[in-house]
Amino acid sequence: MISLLDYGAGNVRSLRNAIQALGFELTEIEHPSDILKAERLIFPGVGAFGAAMERLHQLGYVEPLKEYLAAGRPFLGICIGLQTLFEGSEESPGVAGLGLIPGLIRRFDDPSLSVPHMGWNGVRVERPSPLFADYEGEKFYFVHSYRAEPDARNADWRLATTDYGQPFLSAVSRGRVAAVQFHPEKSGAAGLKVLRHFLAGEEQSDLSPAALASAAGPTRFAKRIIACLDVRANDQGDLVVTKGDQYDVREKDEGGDVRNLGKPVELAQRYYEEGADEVTFLNITAFRDFPLDDQPMMEVLRRTSERVFVPLTIGGGIRAFTDGEGRHYAALDVAHAYFRSGADKVSIGSDAVETVLGVLARGGKDGGSSVEQIARVYGNQAVVISIDPRRVYVDSPAATRHVTVETATPGPHGERFCWFQCTVKGGREGRDLDVVELARCCEDLGAGEILVNSIDRDGSKAGFDLELIRAVRAAVRIPVIASSGAGRVEHFSEVFAATGVEAALAAGIFHRREVPIAAVKTHLQERGIETRA
């Protein structure tokens, strides 16, 4: 009997779907006594170390879990499921972990690195293990700000390490107890192989030649290529994937129907099969008064997570609201519903702008914003800030209080400087806020990633706005995704080389097969830019 310990944090649906796709049946841990009845136990988790341990104590799971582990029974921890095996974490001082493995979990502290460590990286398998029986050097998906350090005290647990600034433990095992820092259910075919080996109860293995070769050198962190699907209802009420031209999604001909580029679930599956590293859904349909009533979009997530085993992000309407019957819902409630439907991250746009304006007006944060609430429960890595800026040209930096850049694309009257104004409501309204202010404040509030769109470049195929992206990349330490304007493969290598961003996102050129994802990755590899094969 394979049992899943779901303590209520994050997207566990994808793990359930992965296990079912591999042909195994799963039972749920519903009571502390169920832990000791399990034949094989899986403990996934995301978010803060302290919140995870607090929830385990509340549910009465800590003592039976310690007993299960002490007996050396089959166990697979994932992400926080690995970190809680240690004595404690710098993330939550004073909170004791399960204490099975000596050592503390520590934050990535190299100032040259973006944190969280978010994306695809390799592992260096250091001894035989059934988990990596047929490992061929593939990359796995990581998303974490804290890591387990290898040292002499935990040497007998050391199974695999990964490099991000310095080596950290990406897999541990002793006997039949094992844990991985990466997410196998979000790591495509390579991750599904790891899961299958555990589920099948395999106990003997030799290292493959590829695994032996990978153990000889450093692991390499990959740039991500993300496929974005703008989803909305068309005039007939069907959910379709569309694409805007400077955010206008209607055709230019007579009648002006919503541009229809395919069905969301089928298109997401196509991108997964073509090698997309992540899939992002932006919900732009008119549901935002009552986001939890948008059951079709949640169904899209549920169905997609049954077929797509890379990270899924959902944006649109992640905010507090009051429904037509006067019931109030926090942004955390909305995010929770999306996570339980299959999302790994939520993207916050207009609400982030209004939040930052409030923080600046008050002179500080108050803990009540959607960014703070979601990050506190689900972790920084679960919150993406989606910025929709437009250029505002000025004659000189002295003409505005905002952060300006000297631009190679002068304004309509020859202006040599511009600042990037944040907008709301799909770019329809501007605010007295620039992208640097927004990005820095959202990082301080707890966001884990910034998605930089561009109203000026949207649909242009003229290339990413490098001046805009450089300004945001220089302002924050969290990962940055470049978006808007890609028209050919060279635009991707250009943005990575010129700005140092961690990921690049495109939509229309992928939808219309003008630029295949495989062509982008081949081009990047030819330019010496690391990607996931």
Low-confidence stretches are 246-251
N-to-C terminal Cα separation, in Å? 35 Å
The total beta strand count reads 28
Average of per-residue pLDDT values: 91
Biggest beta sheet summary? 8 strands, mixed
Helix-and-strand structural type: alpha/beta
Q: Specify Rg, calculated over alpha carbons.
A: 23 Å
| Widest beta sheet: strand line-up | 2-1-3-4-13-12-11-8
Total of DSSP H or I helical runs spanning 4+ residues? 17
**Share of residues in strands:** 15-25%
Shape: globular
Helical amount: 25-40%
What does this protein look like?
With 533 residues, the protein is α/β, with parallel strands linked by helices. The chain contains 17 helices and 28 strands. The strands form six sheets. An eight-stranded mixed beta sheet has the order 2-1-3-4-13-12-11-8. It has an eight-stranded parallel barrel with strand order 14-16-17-20-21-26-27-28, surrounded by nine helices. Strands 22, 23, 24 and 25 form a four-stranded antiparallel beta sheet that branches. Helix 1 links the parallel strand 1 and strand 2 (27-28). The longest helix is centred in the C-terminal third of the chain and has 13 residues, at 350-362. The radius of gyration is 23 Å and the shape is globular. The chain starts with a strand and ends in a 7-residue tail after the last helix. Mean pLDDT is 91; it is low at 246-251.
